Amino acid sequence: MLVLPSVTMAGAPRAAATRQLAAPEQNPAARQPTTVRVAAPEKPCPVPSPPVARPTRPAPPPLDPAHRTVGGPELAAAGLVAPAGAPTPPGVTATSWLVADLTTGAVLGGCGPHEYGVPASVQKLLLAATVMPQLDPTRLIEVTESDLDFEPGSSAVGLVRGGRYPVETLWLGLILNSGNDAANVLARLGGGTGGMAGGVAAMNAEARKLGAYQTHAATPSGLDGPGQYTSAYDLALIARACFAREDFRRYAATRMAQVPAQEAGKTKGYPIWNDNQLLHQYPGALGGKTGYTDLARHSFVGAAERNGRTLLVTLLGAESQPLRGWQQGAALLDWGFGLPADARVGQLVPRGQVDSRGRIPSQAAVASGARSENDRRWRPGWLLMAGAPVVLLGILLTILFLLRRRRASG
Predict the structure, then answer these.
(1) Residues near 24 by Cβ (< 8 Å), separated by ≥ 6?
(2) Higher confidence at residue 29 or residue 332?
């Protein structure tokens, strides 16, 4: 449990409102109709006191109203959205965040979950969700000169030109060390004949399949690029897809790995350590991803398990004082674990359930259609069973009639 700075709230919060979620035909993101009490969307997000200074950032693209409501209408809030009666979330410097149940997909709360932010290296999770299913982890890959073309001084595993590495080493370097060199190699492999640019295009296509329509990748690593953005909600969709894979969970939970020696460059093998401090210092942590650029500031994705529940936190635009990004994530996880198991203000939509306009097919309509088809399929059998006594009675009456006629004619 973290000790947090005092929290101030800008303005007086409005009274919590009780809202009846629409039936699945109007709100298909909810798996079943339920009444959820949520805080008014005008409630501001808790922040540390005193507020931190922020550098100037470019204006985000305009928000599509349809995309703001993916996962439920409450998630369109630019401020705090949380279950009514829930304790006030910790004051964090992140400009947007979200806490969700990784198993059920229930969104427990958030701050501007659909507001645009710059991803930094948490974008590597989208690369993993896109390319990991394609590659054999034992395959040996040779590093090219173009793979090493990335911003000098940024994070790297230390791959050497002409070196041959197992794909698994590249994934470990990507997740543990946030290696931009590993990201370039993996994007090139995932892009096929299109190379690294093809890999980035595949990442954007994967984001659309996941329903992450507020995400656009310009680089495979998360290094800043033109028009590159995401949201806390989109990050949760992407992270959930990653954690659904056993291999990703194993990589994310790895604390230390070994990069093999290479004949190219005569380099010796060396260890790398997981730079996600949540994994090292938070009980039940499953791992995640850290990120930082001057433009994005600090971003973070982390997951942890406690008392049979597995929660996910995503945050964007954080400053490192008074708490580092992972500590802000840990504080929000503590808050989420303190909520009732049925707390919910929205839902992480399933893959492929959102079209390009942010619309979600009605699960109720689909289920109803399936029931109707089953009714049609089994109706003759049920009718036959229901009519069996009538048929038997008719046969008995016919036999009695024939017997009476026989007696009369004899």
Answers:
(1) 30, 31, 32, 33, 362, 363, 364, 365
(2) 332
Given 43, 96, 124, 231, the catalytic residue: 124
Q: How far apart are the first and last CA of the chain?
A: 101
Residue 178 catalytic? yes
pLDDT at 359: 61
The string of pLDDT tens digits covering residues 141-177 is 999 999 999 999 899 999 999 999 999 999 999 999 9
Nearest to 68 by CA among 407, 346, 296: 346
CA dist 264 to 135, 160, 260, Å?
A: 23, 7, 12
DSSP string over 113-175: TTS-B--GGGGHHHHHHHHGGGS-TT-EEEPPTGGG-S-TTS------TT-EEEHHHHHHHHH
Separation between Cα atoms, residue 345 and residue 390, nearest integer Å: 54
Q: Give the integer Cα–Cα distance in Å for 357 and 359.
A: 6
Model confidence at 132: pLDDT above 90:
yes
Closest to 99 measured CA to CA, from 301, 286, 243: 301
99 forms beta bridges with 109, 313
Pick the catalytic residue: 96, 155, 178, 221?
178
Confirm if 278 and 330 have CB atoms less than 8 A apart: yes
Q: Is position 96 annotated as part of the catalytic site?
A: no
Fold of 1-360: Beta-lactamase (3.40.710)
Q: Which of 96, 121, 231, 299 is catalytic?
A: 121
pLDDT for the residue numbered 361: 53
Alpha carbons 190 and 173: distance in angstroms, whole number: 17
Report pLDDT digits (tens) over 276-314: 999 999 999 999 999 999 999 999 999 999 999 999 999
Distance CA 75, CA 106 (A): 12
Say which residues have a Cβ less than 8 Å from residue 214's Cβ, sequence separation at least 6.
63, 64, 67, 114, 116, 229, 230, 231, 233, 234
DSSP 8-state assignment for residue 275 = -
**What are the structure tokens assigned to 306, written together?**
């406690």
Mean pLDDT of the chain: 83
Residue ranges of domains in the chain: 1-360, 362-410
Q: Compute the average pLDDT of residues 335-345.
A: 96
Tokens found for residue 227: 């028009």
Catalytic residue status for 268: no
